[in-house]
Write a structure and sequence with these properties.
This protein has 296 residues and is of the alpha/beta class. The chain has one domain: Purple Acid Phosphatase, chain A, domain 2. It contains seven helices and twelve strands. It is globular. The mean pLDDT is 86.
Length: 296
């Protein structure tokens, strides 16, 4: 199966979430929550992420995580990750209890696609019937346009079809090397050539299908245009910030959360818009002529 079909298949049974002027959604991806050791790339930005999460919870946003939320290639135990980052998961549970939480799986946490795995490891944290999705579709009830959400690893053969092998290599080969400063050259987030190839494929799929597509995976934040309806949330493991995408009043905004200093030298967490908001009406994308899957 080729990369184009793999991306399309991510939405084959994707549920549909209505979107209107009152909707408030925030999209995160690639948190890579770990176990608190030197390989836990999320740890350095946990305070930024938690501050952002509290902001979105208080403002009534629905939280959407587009995969690779937990680093389950390098770590065997999800319970250990939950224990280390319990304050984060407690807040995620609050989103879940208010039916404001949707989570997708990526290549680094592809084991979550197994419902039995979720019941065994996630039922105590979230709701008993909570499951992770390969894709999610946002249906704009005003323009009838749709936004397609998935992790994005489907564009990469090594991180999709060969994901189990890649996970094995990361855990037992690249993880020890990362500890001494050697990066995994097969990673789309760290290998520029691989990153560019993956982004080109995702953008091509969006253009060919005439669909607005939002993914993560490459860790590079990106805002789409009328000619290229492809967005990327970025990640939560940037050196000094985290990035995400907000959808509010039918406008899409790429946002950065970072640490800043006031005149009195006190520190605070700041929200910055990386690009001006983009209205959904900007995109001349195909309006579906079929009824989407009922939201589960």
């Amino acid at each position: 199966m080729g990369w184009y079909q793999r991306i399309s298949n991510a939405f084959r049974d994707a549920p549909v979430l209505p979107l209107d002027c009152g909707s408030r959604l925030v999209l995160f991806s690639d948190c890579h929550r770990g176990v608190g050791n030197s390989n836990d790339n999320f740890l350095k930005n946990q305070h930024l992420y938690l501050a952002a999460l509290q902001h979105y919870f208080q403002k009534g946003y629905t939280y959407l995580e587009l995969g690779d939320g937990d680093e389950l290639w390098e770590n065997r135990s999800l319970a250990r990750i939950i224990d280390i980052h319990d304050d984060v998961f407690c807040l995620l549970k609050e989103f879940c209890c208010r039916e404001r939480l949707y989570m997708l799986y990526g290549n680094h946490d592809h084991c979550k696609k197994d419902l039995r795995y979720c019941r065994r490891h996630c039922s105590a944290l979230l709701l008993p019937d909570f499951h992770f999705l390969s894709g999610l579709i946002l249906h704009d009830t005003i323009s009838q346009k749709e936004i397609y959400l998935t992790h994005g690893h489907q564009a990469d053969f090594l991180n999709s079809t060969l994901a189990p092998l890649s996970g094995f290599l990361v855990r037992y080969f690249w993880k020890p090397l990362e500890a001494v400063g050697i990066s995994d050259p097969t990673s789309a987030a760290r290998n520029y050539t691989k990153k560019h190839k993956t982004e080109t494929r995702l953008a091509e799929w969006a253009s060919q299908e005439q669909k607005l597509l939002i993914t993560g995976h490459t860790h590079r934040p990106m805002t789409g245009s009328a000619d290229s309806p492809y967005f990327n949330t970025g990640s939560c493991v940037h050196p000094s910030c985290i990035t995400c995408i907000e959808i509010k009043s039918r406008r899409i905004t790429l946002v950065k959360w970072t640490l800043k200093t006031r005149d009195d030298m006190s520190l605070y967490v700041a929200r910055e818009e990386l690009e001006p908001p983009v209205c959904l009406d900007t995109f001349q994308i195909r309006v579906p002529d079929y009824a989407g899957n009922a939201l589960r």
